[in-house]
Amino acid sequence: MSFVAYKIAHRASLQFAKSFAVTPGDLAAGFIHLSCKPELRKTALKFSGQENLSLLEIDLRLVSGKVIWVKKEKAYYPHLYGKITPKSVVWVKDLAWTGEKFDFPPGF
């Protein structure tokens, strides 16, 4: 499994929380949903039409808590039972909705 995962979050939650990127779906599930690079575009479909989003690259070795890998369909998704700490965030980039799709950073 990879040591890198990604999180899509509303910018306001990043500025407010300081513990980073918890969505209502995360709160309801009791863990933070993360994605690996190959599944990221599929995950982004859940946010279609939403604006003011950010994409975070997370170093899973530096999060606080336990990461459990869950198989869904043919892919594995990391579930974080803990927190995304500031030191675990490698970078944060805007994820703009173009009206039809997300404008991902180069390499995605």
Task: Note down, in words, how this protein is organized.
This protein has helices at residues 11-17, 24-29, 40-44; strands at residues 4-10, 32-33, 53-59, 64-72, 75-83, 89-97, 102-103. Helix content is 17%, strand content 42%. The protein has a four-stranded antiparallel β-sheet. The protein has a three-stranded antiparallel β-sheet with strand order 2-5-4. Strand 4 (64-72) and strand 5 form a beta hairpin. The protein is of the alpha+beta class. It has a single domain, classed as ADP-ribosylation fold (Alpha-Beta Barrel), CATH 3.20.170.20. It is globular.
Describe the SSE topology.
Layout: E1 4-10, H1 11-17, H2 24-29, E2 32-33, H3 40-44, E3 53-59, E4 64-72, E5 75-83, E6 89-97, E7 102-103
Antiparallel strand pairs: 1-3, 2-5, 3-6, 4-5, 6-7
